[in-house]
Amino acid sequence: MIEIKTAGEIAAMRESGKVVAAVQAAVRQEAAVGVSLKRLDEVARTVIAEAGAGASFLGYHPSFGAMPYPGVICTSVNGVMLHGLPTPYRLRDGDLISVDCGAYVDGWHADGTVSFTVGQPRAEDLKLIRVAEETLAAGIEAARPDGRMGDIGHAMSTVGRGAGYGMQNDFGGHGIGRAMHESPFVPNEARPGRGIRLRPGLVIAIEPSLMAGGHDRYYMDSDGWSVCSGDGSRSVHVEHTVAITEDGPVILTLP
Ligand code: MF3
Ligand code: CO
Description:
By secondary structure, the protein is of the alpha+beta class. The protein has one domain (7-251): Creatinase/methionine aminopeptidase superfamily (Creatine Amidinohydrolase, Alpha-Beta Complex). The protein is 28% helix and 26% strand. The chain contains four helices and 15 strands. The protein has helices at 7-30, 37-50, 123-141, 149-162; strands at residues 54-55, 73-77, 80-82, 96-105, 108-117, 166-167, 173-175, 182-186, 203-206, 209-211, 218-220, 227-229, 235-237, 240-245, 248-251. The protein has a five-stranded antiparallel beta sheet. Strand 4 and strand 5 form a beta hairpin. Helix 1 runs antiparallel to helix 2 and helix 3 (123-141) runs antiparallel to helix 4 (149-162). Cobalt (II) ion binds next to loops.
């Protein structure tokens, strides 16, 4: 069932979105060569706790995960595309990292992901990040009350594939609200004019991921959580929680 949110409920979700943005800012500030992913998770835990919020990811156990999720953020480095575990791995010069965070306030969840480099960046990584951000922006732009769900995926794949990058459609976006993952599924790639009608009060997480190598294959790492690009190429994930309103899309996971 698809839950339609009131303006008051969307305002409540904006509060959790601000916590997600604050976590991302703090993690980005802390991230540097030599800093461990575990340390970034600790920083995230502190920000969530100090905001009086809850961590949506901690203990979350979907069917694809080998065990309940052990952290509050996903830290996906280089060839890890999604759900990278916050391990003792220490960031190296030029690493590309995606930080995915979910938080809830008063029972309302928000979910967002940012990607950046540490140390001396590679030009091709900066381009990959830029195109991923443009891919997400195109998807958000298509999240309008006069549109259909397929318009979002079509807008995103036009940008991501147009730049020659690989994409996958098994892990896409989702409705979000009282639960982190609600209906409907939000495909990263779809046909325009197809799928459910978008309407005011629908709140969705839009989350494309791109693989630099241009191939679409990925595999599940032996750690039981990390989803990696099949060719080992670098990958990027970006995400916002977005409310569809009469006036168009409103991003909830901004500072
Ligand atoms: N943004 C990711 C998603 O919606 C968050 C996964 S949460 C985790 O799939 F706990 F499963 F990692
Ligand atoms: Co999500």
